[in-house]
Amino acid sequence: MRKKCFCVLFGLMAAVSLQAQLRNEEVYEVTEMNRSAVRTEVRIPGFDGWQTLKCDFHTHTVFSDGQVWPDIRVGEAWRQGLDAVAITDHIEYRPNKEVVLGDLNQSYILAKKRGDAIGFIVIKGMEITRSKPLGHLNALFLDDSLPLDVEDPLKAIDAAIAQGAFVMWNHPGWPDDRSTLYPVHEQLIREKKIHGLEVFNSMEYYPVCFNWARDMNLSFMANSDIHGLINDDYGTGMRPMTLVFAREKSAEAIKEALFAGRTAACFNHELAGLAEYLRPLVKASLQVRKIHEGAYEVMNVSDINYRMTAGGQLFIVPAGKTIAFRQPQADALVIENCHVGSAERLTLSMDEFLNR
Q1: For residue 36, what pLDDT is reported?
Q2: Helices in 95-250 by DSSP H: which ranges?
Q3: CA 270, 276, 280: angle at the middle one, nearest 5?
Q4: Rounded to whole angstroms, how far apart are CA atoms 324 and 307?
Q5: 51-273 in CATH: which number?
Q6: What is the bridge-based pairing of β-strands 84-90 and 121-129?
Q7: What are 85's strand-pairing partners?
Q8: Is 178 exposed, middle or buried (CB count within 10 Å of its CB: 0-12, 13-18, 19+)?
Q9: Half-sphere exposure of 38 (CA within 13 A, CB side)
Q10: 252, 140 in Cβ contact below 8 A?
Q11: Phi, psi at residue 316, to the nearest 5°?
Q12: For the CA atoms of the chain, what is the radius of gyration?
């Protein structure tokens, strides 16, 4: 009798368990395969009281010449570990406008709705799209994009500045593979109407522009300029990012840091920026433990691979790994993937690196 009761109870439990897995009698939902709610965290430490925020300030949607809906851009950025994304559709080039209805503000409205739903920062921007010598510029932190839709691009820039926008000069080496600083750029920089320079864009970067950003007090920027699906271009790799050293994770703090120049460009494990920010970033990323005289462990707590040379030796510290480090006969360590000029790399004294 006891055995019979156990069998009945087991059968009832199995039936309840089966029903719990079914939405109804005909459909089984494989919820564990849904990856849209899984985020890959990108580990890049902060320093000196600043948080390091990962941002992409150059993306496109179907509201200009992109191939995805605005809320897809937001979901991609969240899943890939970013902290903020800007929607920067073209003003002048909108090949889909006959079938995708809405004015210049619409793509941001749709993206912001998705951002608010998942607690993600979405920044309102537009791309002023002209041929060289002016080229392309992104205006970020706009209130209204409509006043920028004017024939004279300099008046469009003025309309952005009137709204307190941060203006970034995009891909200066495109489309002719020549990075040229024209008089119009010098004038706009002198008048503080260009505030940032995109030294990394998509799959390319512009070494001469490292000097321009440094010498003209422009924020170093790196962005994807993505038009299609982000995974089609970068797969599971790290997309281009502007690292923003901000007091907190908010749109207001990002804007303040951009205008203050507290940024670095990051792509494919290469960094470009001012030494005053790259130096503490590297020191926060690479933690050194002394084993005995001349022998150390170096642990990389970031997701950036670091390459260092000293005394003719190459040291590679992979992301998330620890290496054994025997002190070379050299006074300085060159961080080869940290660019502080077109032909200059960040240098730390050996004592600074080992003894902190």
Answers
A1: 73
A2: 106-118, 153-162, 183-190, 208-215, 230-234
A3: 70
A4: 14
A5: 3.20.20.140
A6: parallel
A7: 56, 122
A8: exposed
A9: 5
A10: no
A11: -115, 125
A12: 25
Find out whether 221 and 198 touch, Cβ atoms under 8 Å.
Answer: yes
Mean pLDDT of the chain: 93
Rounded Cα–Cα distance for residues 245 and 264 (Å): 8
Runs of H (alpha helix) within the chain? 2-21, 70-79, 106-118, 153-162, 183-190, 208-215, 230-234, 251-260, 275-285, 350-355
Residue with tokens 């995109």: 198
Q: Running DSSP on this structure, what letter comes out for residue 59? A: B
The Cα 168–Cα 196 span in angstroms is 4
Q: What is the pLDDT of residues 7-52, one digit of tens each?
A: 444 444 444 444 445 566 777 777 666 767 899 999 999 999 999 9
CATH number listed for the domain at residues 283-355: 2.60.40
Beta bridge partners of 297: 289, 324
> Cis ω on the peptide bond leading into residue 133 (within 30° of 0)?
yes
Residue for token pair 């920044």: 123
For 247-264, how does the pLDDT look when each residue is reduced to its tens digit (9 = 90+)? 999 999 999 999 999 999
Partner residues linked to 244 by β-bridges? 53, 263
Residues 50-97: pLDDT tens digits? Answer: 999 999 999 999 999 999 999 999 999 999 999 999 999 999 999 999
pLDDT of residue 23: 64
Domain extents for the chain? 2-33, 51-273, 283-355
- What's the pLDDT at 235? 87
Q: Phi/psi class of residue 171: alpha, beta or left (left: φ > 0; alpha: ψ in -120 to 50)?
A: left
Helix (H, G, I), strand (E, B) or coil at 275: helix
Q: What is the largest CA-CA distance in the chain?
A: 97
- Helix/strand/coil for 341: strand
* 3-class DSSP state of 292: strand
Taking the C-alpha atoms of residue 70 and residue 304, their distance in angstroms, rounded to an integer, is: 29
